[in-house]
Design a protein that fits this description.
Shape of chain B: elongated
Keywords (chain A): Hydrolase, Membrane, Mitochondrion, Mitochondrion inner membrane, Protease, Transmembrane, Transmembrane helix
Radius of gyration of chain A: 19 Å
Largest sheet of chain B: 8 strands, antiparallel
Radius of gyration of chain B: 21 Å
Helix content of chain A: 10-25%
Shape of chain A: globular
Family (chain A): Belongs to the peptidase S26 family. IMP2 subfamily.
Number of strands of chain A: 11
Number of strands of chain B: 10
Largest interface: A-B, 25 and 25 residues
Pfam families (chain A): Peptidase_S26
Strand content of chain A: 25-35%
Helix content of chain B: 10-25%
Main location (chain A): mitochondrion
Number of helices of chain A: 3
Order of helices and strands of chain A: HEHEEEEEEHEEEE
Distance between the termini of chain B: 66 Å
Structural class of chain B: alpha+beta
Subcellular location (chain A): Mitochondrion inner membrane
Number of helices of chain B: 3
Strand content of chain B: 25-35%
Oligomer: heterodimer
Distance between the termini of chain A: 70 Å
């Protein structure tokens, strides 16, 4: 009697909530878990505390940066892997278009529209040193805050290493 | 005081309907179907130089149902704010033979498209800037598949090969 109507009303509400959540997470900000230790100690530092070893860090990713694609050295970004579009990685921007980045073997020029990313944990990080510069079109957002675990809640700051990057843009020199 | 409350309540109700509609519009535009104005000579004779309006569907590339010969809308690897419309010539694992200068038939190169990438070319090889210049395109830059043209009305119809 009333059951199909109740079911339909619940379905409509779920659909509406889903659409709104999807829009907000695409255009404004979303919360994602960070897996792996490639950004240790910024995310997932493997300390002996119980909370750290129980679950992955959760971070806030803002999407407003995708309007202009204007990033700065030291920004932590989320991007789709160039080798597998279904995987997403979290790394720090070390080089922007036009920069020259020094790796162990040589110096790489970052082409237009690309960036050079590296994990904070250089020993165990699969990043631009393996798959080269990443097109900025693959960037899905910028990490601004750590939201979990509670004792490490805070903003994610920019960290730059001036000694390895020769930047062509004077705006980033500080 | 009561009147303001009633007006405020009605305004909120109207705003929430508009908000929900805009969210639905965004989801449809990004995940189902959208329209795009494409112009430029790189896809002649398939697409006009003066500009066509095409319909782009966003389902095939998420389901992995793209193949060579498909017209796709991709985000440019040289400028993330621009989108390009090109044709997929080879998928990952395929061998592609191309020459940077189509007027000379001797200068050709071959390579295998790496994993997670596709090779795109414009139909007008003489003026198109595509994978022959910037290399294989990561699959993640593909935004959708162009399947139909709606403007100008004289060339209304499905596109494809």
């Amino acid at each position: 009697m009333g059951t199909p109507r109740v079911l339909w009303s619940i379905t409509k509400k779920c659909f509406t909530v889903g659409v709104i959540t999807l829009t907000v997470s695409d255009l404004f900000a979303s919360i994602v878990p960070v897996r792996g230790a490639s950004m240790s100690p910024t995310f997932n530092p493997k300390t002996n505390s119980l909370l750290d070893s129980l679950s992955d860090d959760r971070v806030l990713v803002e999407k407003l940066c995708l309007r202009n694609y204007k990033f700065s050295h030291g920004d932590v970004i989320v991007f789709s892997s160039p080798n597998n579009h279904k995987e997403k990685h979290v790394k720090r921007i070390v080089g922007l278009p036009g920069d020259w980045v020094g790796t162990i073997y040589d110096v790489v020029h970052i082409p237009e529209g690309h960036c050079w990313v590296e994990g904070d944990n250089t020993a165990s990080s699969l990043d631009s040193r393996s798959f080269g510069p990443v097109p900025l079109g693959l960037v899905k957002g910028r990490v601004t805050h750590v939201l979990w675990p509670p004792h490490r809640v805070g903003t994610v700051d920019r960290k730059t290493s001036q000694n390895r990057v020769s930047s062509s843009s004077s705006a980033s020199k500080f | 005081m009561r009147q303001w409350k009633i007006i405020a309540k009605e305004a909120m109700a109207r705003a929430s309907i508009i908000g929900k509609f805009l969210c639905l519009l965004h989801v449809t535009d990004a995940y189902v179907l959208s329209s795009n104005h494409v112009l430029g000579p790189s896809m002649l004779p398939t697409l006009n130089i003066t500009g066509d309006v095409v319909l782009v569907e966003h389902l095939s590339h998420r389901l992995g149902k793209l193949g060579s010969g498909d017209l796709v809308l991709v985000r440019s690897p040289l400028d993330p704010k621009k989108t390009l419309t090109k044709r997929i010539v080879a998928m990952e694992g395929d061998k592609v033979t191309f020459s940077l200068d189509p007027t000379r038939s001797h200068s050709s190169r071959s390579l295998v498209v790496p994993k997670g990438h596709v090779w795109i070319q414009g139909d007008n090889l003489y003026v198109s800037r595509d994978s022959r210049h910037f290399g294989p395109l990561p699959y993640g830059l593909i935004e959708g598949k162009v399947f139909m043209r709606v403007w100008p009305p004289s060339s209304f119809g499905l596109l494809g090969e």
